[in-house]
Amino acid sequence: MASAIDLTPAGLPAAARQRRRSTSWITLAAALISLIALLPLAFIAWTAIQTGWETVIALIFRQRVGELLVNTILLVVVTVPIAIVLSVALAWLTERSDLPGNRLWSWLSVAPLAIPAFVHSYAWISLVPGLHGLWAGVLVSVIAYFPFLYLPIAAALRRLDPALEDAAAALGLGPWRVFARVVLPQLRLAICGGSLLVGLHLLAEYGLYVFIRFDTFTTAIVDQFQSTFNGPAANMLAAVLVACCFVLLGVEVIVRGEERYARVGSGAARQQQRTRLGRAMLPCLLLPVGTALLTLGVPFVTVGRWLLAGGADIWRWDEIAPAFSQTLFLAIAGALLATIAAMPMAWISIRAPGPLQRLLESCNYIVGSLPGVVIALALVTITVRVALPLYQTLFTILFGYALMFLPRALVSLRASIAQAPVELERAASSLGRPPLKALWATTIRLSAPGAAAGMAMVALGITNELTATQMLAPNGTRTLAVAFWSYSGEIDYASAAPYALIMVAISLPMTLMLYVQSKRMAGR
């Protein structure tokens, strides 16, 4: 007993010192990764300084940039509100009304995420060859990206406390006024977050707008790079595109506001009673039916038509098999690298929160909001000028993927680590295990499902990624997306159809996982 009393005071400070030392190393690793993530932004700033302010001003303040800026603003200003209205209407019908088959329509409202945006555009341009310009871009963009709004809005509707709506109705407000004054304000966070995702995708998208011949900053940057490899001109376009991303982030923060959205107390345990549509049943049913036909019917019918037209000859397995294996390898390797890189940041965000943690985490999210073409352009120019042996190598493309998709892995890891009790780590340390072994035996193992979900999300992004793969991939690399783009660029839509079908088949399970996860968050 005496020896135990003697050892306890000495043992606990030693364990505490080990934990602090381990935390310091993890924080240092998170800081290093965050600084590396800022590389594209630092490169753009360095390029502007090296180019000279007179040249920078001449490259930015010209007619072409003004045209691209007008196109971009119009695209975002028109597309996002339409996507909001469509998503809110579908979410209310599937979550709050007695619409027949609401679970089926809910799943079909998420399923368009499984179809890459450039495949949506390929399907529509095959069906309507004259589909070009701004309104064509708005149509296909809404179809491709509205699920990013539908998912958070539907999840928010499931979690709302019905007592607030009952109280508003008891005060004499009609259904429309209850929705406008009680329900809609509580959806602000979901709408703002989803709108930000949609807006960032609109700024980053390339293939969709090339098909319909609508010029954006991303298409102009890629064209500039591929045609003349004009570093200063392409980088200044990238700088303007980055500025647009930051403006979008700022607008989202302002619109989101600082209102409180949580209530004191547990709230009501019962679920919201579904509204009876009555005579409005048929008109309301037309919305999900029409949306499903436009978002899923057109792509599947178009791909099926081209598959039938091409016959067995378009299934060139000597090309499809290598493209599939290369896509699978890059997706797995890139997802593993991004998840490992996200681990230190995810751990300190839960275990050691503070001003430094918030600063480092914001660095990762800011860079994650940049279009892939900006990150790829920075890495191409850096490797050409500074590290030529790394130009178009496996290391460079995997590094680019890790920068682009780090936030996806970080969000999943952070949520899973938050559910692992810190007391388990302390208990393992008190039993004599070193801090890192205690971390591995407890938190990392418990967060494995979240890490797997994050890896799946990153792998999905890599599978459908086009611009960065074109610019960074080693010679001879031909992923499913690159092969699809090569054939469609030659107007050989039949040969491109198998690659489109395989990409959709790979993406569908991940989309189903997203849908199931959103249901579980609401306890369903």
UniProtKB/TrEMBL annotation:
Transmembrane regions listed in the UniProt entry: 25-49, 69-93, 105-125, 131-151, 187-212, 232-255, 280-308, 328-350, 362-388, 394-417, 438-462, 496-516
InterPro entries reported in the protein's UniProt record: MetI-like, MetI-like_sf
UniProt keyword list: Cell inner membrane, Cell membrane, Membrane, Transmembrane, Transmembrane helix, Transport
Main location per the UniProt record: membrane
Localization terms from the record: Cell inner membrane; Cell membrane
Membrane topology: Multi-pass membrane protein
Keyword presence, Secreted: no
PROSITE patterns: ABC_TM1
Membrane is among the record's keywords: yes
Domain ABC transmembrane type-1: 69-255, 324-514
Family (UniProt): Belongs to the binding-protein-dependent transport system permease family.
Protein name as catalogued: Iron(III) transport system permease protein
Lineage start: Bacteria, Pseudomonadati, Pseudomonadota, Alphaproteobacteria, Hyphomicrobiales
